[in-house]
Amino acid sequence: MNSTVRSSEASSGICETPAEIGEFAMRFTSTRRGARLARRLASHRLDEWGYPYETEINESVSAVVGELAANAVRHGHVPGRDFALRLTVSVAAAETRGLRFRVEVSDTRSERLPMVALGGGAGAAVDGGGGLVESGRGLLIVACIADSWGVVPRQSGPGKTVWAEYAATAVGAAAGTVGGRPA
Q1: CA 141/CA 161 separation, integer angstroms
Q2: Separation CA 67–CA 69 (nearest Å)
Q3: Helices in 95-163 by DSSP H: which ranges?
Q4: Using an 8 Å Cβ cutoff, are 88 and 102 in contact?
Q5: Which of 161, 173, 155, 14 is nearest to 85 (CA)?
Q6: H or E stretch including 177?
Q7: How many beta carbons lie within 10 A of that of residue 138, not counting itself?
Q8: Most CB atoms within 10 A, among 32, 38, 153, 167?
């Protein structure tokens, strides 16, 4: 597994914007186990950055990671190819002390682009016969949790990147901290 972990507290030669607090990036096997590991490691990284496990931020961002990773495995799987996760947290606006969490999940399948039925809700969860289906709600969940989401062509090769952004205030983070540092 390839991974990148950056934090503004680390002194490295990597160029970061002053507003960026941290970045976590890793490749995972395109399996259900890989998707589960992606969610767990994202939650762990958020906890290390100062957003504890049972906070709204950790649970919301982890849920988005889980849904996007599961979709990459189920709909973006190409035999022998991994999917990549990139999680960043940055300061959205200095005057509001808002935080922006960005989740990006990349896979190598470009012909299957994600879509959510317009109007959200029940239309996507009902099959042609009027019964409930067992799957198909992942992006509806992402759309409800995230402030925005989308899909773009993958920059480093074939495939796509599905991204989602979650905005929070610094007050919603660990008491008195922003990214694990005193506010």
Answers
A1: 18
A2: 6
A3: 138-145
A4: yes
A5: 161
A6: strand 177-178
A7: 21
A8: 38
Tell me how far apart the alpha carbons of residues 163 and 106 are, in angstroms, rounded to a whole number: 9
The mean pLDDT value for 18-35 works out to 87
Element (H, E) at 22: strand 20-28
Residue-wise pLDDT tens digits, 87-139: 999 987 665 668 999 999 999 887 767 665 544 444 444 445 555 555 668 88
Query: What does the alpha-carbon distance between residue 35 and residue 48 come to, in Å, rounded to a whole number?
Result: 20
Q: Which two tokens stand for residue 35?
A: 């998707």
Residue bearing tokens 């190598």: 108
User: In the chain, what's the furthest Cα-to-Cα distance?
Assistant: 59
In angstroms, the Cα distances linking 55 to 28, 62, 150 are 25, 11, 25
Q: How far is CA 181 from CA 19, 102, 170, 177, in A?
A: 13, 20, 11, 5
For the chain, the first-to-last Cα distance in angstroms comes to 34
Instruction: Give CA 88 to chain center in angstroms.
Output: 9
